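Long-time lurker. I teach an intro course on protein structure, and each term I like to show students one example going from raw sequence to a predicted 3D structure in token notation. This year I'd like something fresh instead of my usual example. Would anyone be willing to generate the tokens for the chain below so I can use it in lecture? Attribution to the forum is fine with me.
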Amino acid sequence: MAVTAWVRSPIGRADAHWATRCGTKSVLVLVPHIVAGTRLLDLLPLLEADHRIQVAFTDPDAGDNWPATQDFLRAQGGSALPWAQARRSDVDLVVAGSTRGIDELAAPTLLVPHGGGLGQYRSWRPPAAARHHDPQLGLGTDQLMREGRVRADAIVLVHDHERDLLAEVCPRALPAAVVAGDIALDRITASLPHRDRYRHALGATGDQQVVVVTSTWSPRSAFGRHPDLFDRVLAALPGEGYRVVGALHPAIWSHHGHWQIRSWLAAALRAGLVLLPPEEGWRAALVAADHVIGDFGSVTGYGAAAGASILLAGNRGERLLNGTPAEVISRHAPRWRPGRPLVPQLRAATEARDAAGLPGLVRGLMTSRPGEAGRILRSTLYRLLGIPEPAHAVPVAPVPLPKPVTA
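-- Reply from a regular --
Happy to contribute to a lecture. Here you go:
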């Protein structure tokens, strides 16, 4: 493997003589993939306008990861350090969207979920191997403990139910738990009053209904099981009444490449598909959405919380933890039937949403601190840094307008 040259570091002692702002607290942001990166970008505005803090980025999987992660880091315009250099840096706080790399750094660590929270799904194994299923993803001892110690100083949870689950499966990590709510959902909620602006940016006109078609990654996902997913939806809907928007999991883009995704979806793009890039845009689309056709990925859950009707395109065999947003959606939302007319299915999905009160149900399961995530997270960040919080209010900004991919 090629050795990556070290760079001038704003958080390194060796390069301190280059600094203009001296004596700052250093924050190292670990970005092993785009999904983690986009969630961490929601947290960084909590540190804005504070001249006491210097932020740098790194990819703890550099050399073994997708080039797309490096492209993502470069696009942010921040100082990106090679992992070999970052892991030897003397930093004051590590902010991580996954557990990758955190054991190699001695600084206090804030661990945040990069999806719809921890404890959402049962672990998946083929039926023949399914003697035992761990009851959660991300909260087990194997995830949160190493060599008898808790791996992070603060473990962010979105809901009190997750804290109860943590107390059951990994009680030694309980003192590190911080129930903060969901900052991504808070931003979606703050965006709802601007729904017409997001619809306009997606090209929806008049009384057109916006249908977001979303897929997580893996062969079991909606796109993995239905390569013609977008073609089917477009063919089944009258163009004058519907605007179809595509949102694919960033791992699909990272692994297969932008060129390949555009190539696979070329016919759909010519037929009017509005395709969103992997970094941002999906939340804006959910604010604009009347309907979501999606699988067991977290985007479907956020769509339900935003008020869209849900038509499930997921695998019936997916093992979901009872009482989680994904499980509740699977219980109440109808299944997409590719061979049948789609407009009546969307109508049935709307009726099912209204009958179950699905948006309220899902919102109540996705966060137990609605609207408070920014305040709680900022307080936690500054506690770990050991300096007082700024006096200004915590910003909760609406999500940016979507910028669709061009064919």
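Some talking points for your students: DSSP finds 18 helices and 14 strands in the chain. The CA atoms of residues 312 and 335 lie 5 Å apart.
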